[in-house]
What does this fold into?
Amino acid sequence: MQLLFLLSTMRQLYIMLFLTSMNCSMPNKGRVVIDLDPPWADLFETESIILKCEAEDGSSGWKYEWAKENKGMLEKLKNTTGSNGDTYRIKSVKDYDSGIYWCQAERVTETTESASCTLNVLKGRPGVSITLQPSFTIVYVGEWLSLKCEVKETSAGWKYSWAAGTDSNLIQVQHLSDVIVIGTELRFKPVKLSHQERYWCQASRKSFQSSSSSFLLQITDKVPKVLLSIQTSEGPVFTGETVSMKCELDEDSAGWIYIWYKGMEHNSKFHTNSSRDPAGSNYVITQSGISDSDVYRCQAERPATHFFSNLSETAILKISNPPKPRLTIERKWMKVYQTENVSLKCVIENFTSDWNYTWYKDGIKQNACRNSENCSVYAINSVAEQHSGNYTCRAKAHSKYSEISDPLQLHVFKNGPQLILWSSSVVTYTGIPVNLSCMIMGESSKWEILWYNESQKLFAEDQGNTEVSNYSIVSANVWDSGKYCCRAKREKFLSNCSNQVEIQVFQSHLKPILIIEPDERDIYREDKFIITCRFNETITGWNFSLYKDGLKVTHSSPYTVSSAKSSDSGEYWCEAESKLDANVKLNQSNALNITVQALPETLLTQMLRSEIFNIIFKGQVTLKCETAWNSTDWKYIWFRNTAVVNEAHQGGLYIIYTGHDSYGVEYSCRGQQFTKPFYSEYSEVVTPSVTVLKARLIAAASLVIILLICGILLKCGCKRLLRVKGTDKKGVYPSMNMHNSDCSQPTDATFYAMTRLNFTSLDSATNDETNNMLYHTIE
It folds into this structure.
């Protein structure tokens, strides 16, 4: 915006200077003016100029006189031109032509006041210079800038031309891409690396010319790098602290301003309103908050050339609330008993600073901590009742304090925890598992549980893991009977025995049974049936495995067959296994022999013999579906390309009509009834085509007609022969007298056959069927 304003102002000044130079002098009174051609009063030696005097109002009839002021005296000028002396011409000005020129007009008795104009003749040639606009020391590829050509003494009336290259190889700038000459400027839109050249400009006015020295435009394609740094106090940044960020270039920083971005979104630019320098290279947050936590970036811009640097690397500012320490008990239990050791630990998580900790009991600061350099651990050896209370801690690092931790309550007990023992069964049978559970009331910490039977300790090899609260007898025996109890142990502390549970084990002969649902003997293909293995009694703790023909089918019960197949036939039996030990198994169940029977076959046919008339004249084919089992209970389902045709139509016959889109597709069917078997098999697929059948019928009919015509012709020939013989031997063969017959007329049967067989559209049929149908038609 600053560059555009500067260019606009310069352009307005240039226009004002040009307009005022058009009239060398305007009189205060009178009606004549002096015009200059060319319209400038500052001239260099050898330039030419024409001064013309004329009435201001454009009236005619005037005669003009010229004079030049020289050392305060007016000297009348001769050699004026024009019919009335209104023009004074200087072909090649010299130094002595400098001065004030006067003009006066006369007409009869009327005289105007004179007008003056000052000419200034300069020695030598004008100085021409090239400057970079804006005047940066480093030019980057992509910048919008210009070279300006200026005449030092005066700028009126000059035209400028540009060239680039070397002294021996100059090229006009018109041949360069993205370059345009506007007035005194050579503008680049934008700068390219190929624009790095030496440039000359030439100022010309009429036939007068002057050239500049060369100007080397140095361009770099290296985009300046921006460095972003965050300056904070040592350690983590907490809310309320002051945060300062700085954005700076690694090279020349003249003419740059800085843009700040918060977040990674494209439109995350923001205008800072905190403490900053005029160029915006510093961004200061005086009262930081959680909302200031984000990813920050910055970028440098040269507004004068619309050029931007690359974005800086991201800087992550993380502002947190003062942390709250986490207080834990390293022994992993809150209730402790006398003589036990206790260690409390205070930790600041997710922060790596060197924290030092202070401990409090019931709000009172404790004087010393133990076994830790920074007091993060508070240890108590052999606790007593007076150590019970609420403990808290607080951390400090680099003059920053954390919050106070949540309290941790330590309760020291005299007596041990209460234990409750129960059993899954108190009266059971041999082979059945028994599970004992020991629960510690009001305790969630880890205890070692010890088990006893009749005051005899049960060892690890008998009970598995002694640290669990369950004791399992995988397969009970008679000698497992007795009174059981449990005790809890932690470090040196051992509790009293729990309540006693007496278990009695008796001999038993359990055996699983196998049943099938539904309980029917006939199983057909596609039927659903369920096989279940169970006990007659409600007994838990067992898994059931199902076998078929000696091979295991599944590990679970019940076993469901959704759609029976012939491969599902076989002998089934099951076996019970203990959930606690798969090696403990009971006797096999009863066996079930299952036979999956096949479904009745379905036959799908086309009815041809009785449908010839319908096929030929009505263009329809009738399909017939029937099952191998003769039963009036069957209904039929029809399929067209595997999709049900019409659920409401369940008859055994299905008619297809001429022109219907049913031709050329596949048809099938199957039977359905409400008693077993519920379905028959799917029929084979039939693809009817009425057109082929009719074509075969016409071909057969045409052959029959030809044979009939041949027979008639033969019969007529025979009659003519007999008629000739009858002339010679009249009455010899009275039975052969055929005078009532006329060979030229077809018989009624022939006419009927020809008429009935005159059709155009046909469908499919076999040759034998066609012959039979024609035979019945002719009869």
Observations:
- The longest helix spans residues 690-728.
- Residues 40 and 257 are 43 Å apart (CA to CA).
- The chain is about 10% helix and 40% strand.
